[in-house]
Each structure stands twice: as structure tokens, then as C-alpha cells.
Amino acid sequence: MNPASSFSLSGHSPRRKFLQQTAVATAAIAGSRYLRFTTASAAEVAPAAASANQPWFLRATRWMQTNIAELDATRYDIPWWREQWARTKTQGIVVNAGGIVAFYPTQIPFHPKAQFLGDRDLFGDLLKAARADGIAIFARMDSNGAPDETYQAHPEWFTYNPQTGRPFGDRGLSIPCINGVYYREHIPAILKEIAEKYKPEGFTDNIWSGLPRANICYCDNCVKKFRADRGLDLPQQANWDAPAYRAWIEWGYACRLEIWDLFNKTTRSAGGKDCLWVGMNGVSITGAAAEFRDYREICKRTEILMIDNQRRVDTTGFQSNGVGGRLVHGLLGWDKLAPESMALYQTASENFRVASKPEPEVRLWALDGIAAGIQPWWHYINAYQEDRRMYETPVPMGQWHQQNEEFLVRRTPVATVGIVYSQRNNDFFGRQDTEAQVNLPQRGYTEALLHARIPYVLVHADDLDQAAASLKLLILPNIGTMTDAQIAGVRKFVQNGGGLIASGATSLCNEWGDPRADLALADLFGVHLPANHFLRSETSRRQYATQSTQTYLRLTPELRAQVDGPHPAGEPPATGTRHEVLAGFDHTDIIPFGGIVDLVQVDPSAKVLLTYVPPRPTAPPEMIWTQNDHTNIPGLILNERAGFGRVVYLAADLDRRYARDNIADTEHLLINLIRWAAKDDIPLKIDGPGLLDSHLYQQPGRALVHLVNLTNTNTWRGPVEELIPVGPLKIAVRLPDGVSGKDLRLLVSNQKPALTLSNGWANFELTSILDHEVAVIE
Questions:
Q1: Distant-in-sequence, close-in-space partners of 338: CB < 8 Å, separation ≥ 6
Q2: What are phi and psi of 96, to 5 degrees?
Q3: Rounded mean pLDDT of 534-550?
């Protein structure tokens, strides 16, 4: 295999390919292919995209972690791992240092050494090896647990659960309190000891933010601090309408940011200005909210974001890594790095952490992240494995990444569609049901855009002004909680000619999730949703959002009388023509639905294109009929006003339904709405077969198209064992300013297809894509 040209498997592999790889990988590692050799110097693996005088956190783009078990102190083969770092072109490693246990000779009381460490300084040995090879090192911590011996000696360090009279627990350990001595003094002492003695580049922390939001800590530290900070007693239960609980939510975020700032102050003071503490974070806003991690504020504070997001799940697919990359860089900026921990071991319904994941599964997950601006961070459990296949997996990917790095980092997305979100909407509107109220509506649009091959960005609702300049369309998927400033930003965007798609309760609630008298954006939507029509009870909203019935949506005008088929007496005549957003539905007057329709009132100036069809029985077949198949309940409304952008409002929760049910008609309609509202101002067009995650970027003087082929035998149920090539594909790219379009090259296949220019567009054809392709137009 020539990694300079591709890290694709040759041809498309049958199921037996993975089994064949066992023998190949084992022989390669043990035999002639990977003979022992001198590790590469820092200069040999220095990234082409970053100059040597830049700080380490802008230069280290490929990472590796061997998550150390206590037994590894007896069996860590550092010379072999140095070779693995060189083979994979690794520039940074994550090494267990302290927290639960220490892998160095600590002097801090109640910081126990690893069981088999003895007199060895394993962390120090690995740091010396990394230094010799020009590799950056993160000292990994795990701060959120301690053994019972520590609790018995210092119960005041720990959370308190009044139901048990003991600390809350996790992983067989007691959870310390974020506001106590453990986090405020004990962990900083460990950080200081490591920083002063070893001078690592920085620190990560696997679980750094203390007790999750699901539980309230009633220790003396929290009781006193909450009263001092907020003037209130701690809430006794989760009640989103209670002032004390709302204050506790905001206070919980503030306490975690205090820890972030404290730990960074400690490491920089002891280890130098670039000795960063960066925690670890996922890429889910819902997950961040559950851990009291304010994602936007964290991204403002950090120079590099270490992402703990190791695998896909069947319901979200590989494309979720592309969504995650868009989310992270939308907050972090596209000039900073965001390495992501990528598991090389089996992650199915059960995590078999010492058995290899099939290489195609690892590859597609990594590629979809890389295409969205994420950097690889290969993750092993234990320093010694009996299953040797996982040692081979990252080698060609790391080598290809190193050779093409300048095209994979510090690139700016080119997109005209933005999906709006906010963590506050997740908290105060989603509340206890974020999956149905927040995640599914957003996922409906990300999936539709994936299938349509339309580039997009994720836009925080507080960043609308800076994002709006390059966008033609904003999508607000059930953004129920909006501040006055966010509402003003959306209104300004539409008044300036930008398109808008909104659904459900968007703009109905204030910043606390309390319903307003009407939709704050009712004038733009041409729609009113009075508060007394909105389901205020969380239980009612949850049940309403998750129910599924035999309901449909009726298209207007009805045209079936002019289409071949039976024509009984009383059939409505076909009159008028349909709006262009209903293109492709000429042979039907209904589409399947099954979801929610909020009881809205429509302004006379707006157009209703879909109406609600009540449910009918599902069985027996003799009963699947109804005489009540027409209503005036609006499902889809368009509002066009002179000088304003085009506006779409979905009273019917088609976005949520598409994410849940994957109905082809719903996908087709959502794509039509997106293209219409954006006035088809889309800078990338792709014609051809397959499921592709499509990204368009620009760098000075060049445009980059990064495509990931998600067409495979196990698209919706992992793991993937076989890749299926797709093509040919016809690509058209609207050239950004400063790109001449005189040259085209492909970074995976190393081909140079013919490139033609027409009216500012560059056109070319890809004959086939197996896993991914990167087209560079200069």
C-alpha cells in the first residue's frame, strides 16, 4: 500500500477481508514490514501547515493515547511504542499521570501510586521518550473519583447524598465535590507537582466537572457557597419553574468554569504560559449540559479542545462526527485544533476494549471527523494487547494525514446554510426531554442536508451577527427558548434578505422557557401560536412528541383527479398549480406524517401548503378508512414579503419525524424547503449515486471539496466490514474569491481529472470514491 496516494483498501472488500487482516497485521508487525527502526525526529514529522515557531498546541495535529492500566507498569514496552509513534506520524501523546492513581512517585498525601508501579516512574519514562522524539505530551488526569480510604480520612472533600448519608458514587469510587478542598486544593497540588517536576505541554482530564446535573450535592461546601453566591437555599428537587432550581442550574455552570480557570492558572504558573489544562469534552450539547459544561465559554477559554467522542451509534451514524466537527469549530474557530479520541477497540452494544474494531469502521469514523476539521487521536486501552490487529489500523491513515496536513487544517468552511442552536434552549426548553424537543428536530435537518449534499454550518444563537454575513438561510429547529437579543438577530437577518426555516415552538418562550403570549417571530412567520395553545406540561409535551399515529399531511391544491387511477364520483377536481416546494409530489395528494401539529393561526398574507389529516385505524385492513380526511389545520406555511427573505414555518414537526422515521417523502420535502428558502444559493452541486458527507472549504488561493463515502453494507448498524465504491460523480463548485480554478488535484487517488470553468463555477468528474476524496482547486 502506498500511503502517499491513498489509505483505501484495494478494491471493495468482502466480509472475509477483516479476517484476512488478522494474519496480515500480525505478520506485518512481527515481520519484515515493520522491522525495528530509529524513531523520526521532530523535524521529520513537523506539520507542513504550521511553522516551527508556533506554539505546540497549533502544531501537534496527530495524537495517540495508550490508556495505562496499573499492570502496565510491569509490561510497558516503550521502545516498541516509540516505533508506533513514528509509523503513525504521531506528534502528541496522552499519558496517564495522576488523579485516581499516580503513575509517578508522587509526594501528595491521599494520591495513591498505581498498584504495580513500585519504584518506577512510568510517566517520567514516557515523557523522556516523547521529548527525545520531538513529541508533545499531555499529562492525563482523572479527577472525579477517589477510594474509600480518602473518603474516610476527609469526608468533607466529597459530595453528599442525603438519601444514603454517603457520597454519590461512580465506577466503584466516591465522587468529590466540585466546591470542596479536593477540587480546589488537592487536585491543584497534584497539577503543580507534575507541572514543576516534568513540564508537560499540558493536562487533560477525563472526567473533570464533578457531579452531573442529574443529582444535587448537599454537602456543607455547596450549601454555604450557593447561599453566598445566590442568596438562596439549595433546591430540594428538579423543578424547572422554581427560581432556586433555575439559579442552581446557572450556578452549576459557573462553578465548573471556576474550576477550569483555577486549573489553568495552576498549570501555567507552575509549568509555563503554554502549559495548558484543557479537560476533555464530548461533542454533544445535551451531554455538555448534563455535565454542567458551558461549551461556548469553554471554547472561548481554550487554545486546543481535546474531544472524547470515540465512536458512532446506529441511530446517528458516521455523519454525527461531521456534525460534531461543525459544532466544535463553530465555537472554537477554524484556526485552532480539536483532536478527537478514536477507539481502535471494539465498541458495539458492549465495549470489548481489548479486541480490535474492524478497520473500515475505524476509518470511516475517523474520516468523517477529519473532513469536518477534527484531528485524529488514536486510543488504546492498555499498553499490551493480545489482539495485534489494532496496531496496524492507524498506520496508513496517520501517514496520509501527515503528507496532506496543509489541506486538512486551518481551512474556512464555505456554506450558505446555517442551523441555529443554543445550550440554553437545550436546558430551559428541552429540560428533561432534550432528545425529542431539541436533538431530533435538529437531526432532521442535518440528515436532510447530508442526503442533499448541501454544505452547512452550526451557528450558536448568540453568534448570529458574525455568522450572518456569509449565510443565505438560517434554520431554527424548534428553538423554543430565545432571548430578546437572539430574536432581534434573526429578525435583522430576514429583513436583510436572508431566508428562514423555523418549526414548532421557535421563539415562543423566553430565556427561562416560560411561554410568551405569542411567538416572538410571529410577524416573520405569518403565524401565531398563542400561549394557551402550547402544551406547558413537560409530561404532555414528551408524550405528544413521541406518540406515533396514522396521520398524514394533505397537499394543496389536490391534483389526483388529473393523474391515472380510479376516479370515483365526488372526487375533487384538479384546479390550480402547486408551489415549487411541492415539486416531485405530482402523483400524490397526501404524504405520511404521524406527528405533531401545533394549533397555529395563520395571517391572510401567508400561504398554507399542507394541512393535517386526522388519524385512521391501522388494522384490520377492513377498517383502514375514514370519512373525516380533511381539516383546515395548517401544517406548512410560507410567508413572503417584499424586501424580506423567504420564510418557512413548520407547524407539523416534519424535522423531528424525519429523524425518527426516515420517511423518504419527508426528506424530499425538507430538501425542497431548504433550497427554496435559500433561493438555491448553494455553492456545491454533486450529481451521482451514494450517501456522501460533503464539505466545502477555502484557503488562500484554493477551494477544497472533502467528500466521505458513507455508502456501505452496515450504514445503520455497526460495525462496517466492507466498503462499497460509488461513482461516477459530477461535481460543480462555485469558486470563492481569489481562486483562479486553473488547477485540480485529488489527494486520495492522486488523479488529475479534467477541470472546466463556466460562469464562476469549476466543474469536474470523479470516476469513483471508495472511502473518501479531497479535491484541491487552485
A1: 304, 305, 306, 307, 325, 328, 329, 332, 373, 374, 375
A2: -55, 130
A3: 63
Q: In the predicted model, what is the mean pLDDT of the chain?
A: 91
* Cross-strand pairs, 515: 509
Report d(CA 606, CA 290) in Å as an integer: 40
The pLDDT tens digits of the residues spanning 583-602 come to: 999 999 999 998 888 889 99
Our measurement of the distance from residue 149's CA atom to the centroid of its chain's CA atoms, rounded to an integer in Å, reads: 39
Alpha helix positions (H), 55-185: 56-59, 78-87, 122-132, 148-153, 181
Q: Which three cell numbers stand for residue 235?
A: 433546591
Q: How far is Cα 417 from Cα 348, in angstroms, rounded to an integer?
A: 34
Q: What is the pLDDT of residues 238-263, one digit of tens each?
A: 999 999 999 999 999 999 999 999 99
pLDDT above 60: residue 264: yes
Torsion, Cα of 540, 542, 545, 551 (10° steps) = -50
DSSP 8-state code for residue 147: -
Rounded distance, CA 587 to CA 206, Å?
55
Average pLDDT over residues 688-703: 98
Query: How is 162-214 classified by DSSP, letter by letter?
Result: TTTTB--EETTEEPBPTTSHIIIIIHHHHHHHHHHHH--SEEEESS-S-S-TT
Distance, in Å, from the CA atom of 327 to the CA atom of 117, rounded to the nearest integer, reads 40
Residue 464 amino acid letter: L
Q: 124: Cβ–Cβ under 8 A, 6 or more apart, which residues? A: 104, 198
**Contacts by residues 766-769 (CB-CB < 8 Å, ≥ 24 positions apart):** 766/688, 766/707, 766/727, 766/728, 766/729, 766/731, 767/727, 767/728, 768/725, 768/726, 768/727, 768/728, 769/690, 769/692, 769/707, 769/709, 769/725, 769/726, 769/727, 769/729
Provide the residue count of the chain: 778
This prediction's pTM: 0.93
Closest CA to 142 of 105, 181, 182: 182
Question: What one-character DSSP code corresponds to residue 507?
Answer: T
Place of cell 469536474: 764
The DSSP annotation for 525-565 comes to HTEE--GGGS---HHHHHHHHH---S-EEEESS--GGGSSS
Taking the C-alpha atoms of residue 658 and residue 425, their distance in angstroms, rounded to an integer, is 21
Angle between helices 122-132 and 78-87 (to 10 degrees): 40
Q: Where are the alpha helices (DSSP H) in 72-121?
A: 78-87
Count of other CB atoms within 10 angstroms of residue 88: 24
C-alpha to C-alpha distance for 665 and 554, rounded to whole angstroms: 12
Amino acid occupying residue 303: E
Under 8 Å between Cβ of 213 and 255:
no
746: Cα separation from own chain's centroid: 27
Q: Dump strand ranges (E) for 374-424.
A: 375-381, 412-413, 417-421
Confirm if 685 and 507 have CB atoms less than 8 A apart.
no
Say how many CA atoms lie within 13 Å of 425 toward its Cβ: 28
| Poorest-pLDDT segment among 39-48, 229-238, 248-257 | 39-48
Gap between the Cα atoms of 56 and 92, Å rounded = 9
Q: Is 620 helix (H, G, I), strand (E, B) or coil?
A: coil
Instruction: Give CA separation, 292 vs 178, 184, 214, 285, 708, in Å.
Output: 11, 17, 10, 10, 33
Distance of CA 203 to the CA centre of its chain: 23
A 10 A CB-CB count for 43 gives: 8
